[in-house]
Hints:
This protein is an all-alpha fold.
Amino acid sequence: AHPSRLTRLPRVMVDQSTLVIGTLVALVAAVAAYKYLQQAHGSSNGLPTTRQAQLVTSTWEKVKTLGPQDVGVLLFQNLFAKHPEGLGLFKKFGGDKDWVNNPAFRAHALNVVTHVDTAISLLGDLDTLVPVLQKLGNSHIEYGVKPEHYDWVGEAFLTTLGQGLKEDFTPEVKDAYIAVYGTVASVMMGDNYKK
């Protein structure tokens, strides 16, 4: 493990209606987007390696066998356990004391992971994925997403991956998700937060 990389948790978004949909779609899209960025910048510095992209893709296959709704629910439980204030950003279920059993929440959790699978099916289509990733980042500004929200969801996602992958969540796999997610966050934030 690379401690300096682990302390630089990637940034993640929280918004009123699609907290992690864009983030997880972006995570999967980053497997392709990093290649686009390498081409655009002529360098791979700071971008995930091919090996890291392969690790993310292969381990995600195991994660999705756990059940998309269950993975989504666990992700949000991890997020709100550490950042309960984030729950208030969700109008459809944030005010419900039993939000974890709220049908709107459960549908949202399923939708998040379903979007990841959709993005995986588009990994070979950079012309579609990269603009989608940029558009998601831009649209989330309207929901009040702040740079620190990227960190919140990134932490929760890594925790969820560790719980789901168990012994397969090796330091190398964790580093791979951090590298890929860091690229995603960077692409999504773009110039949106520059002063």
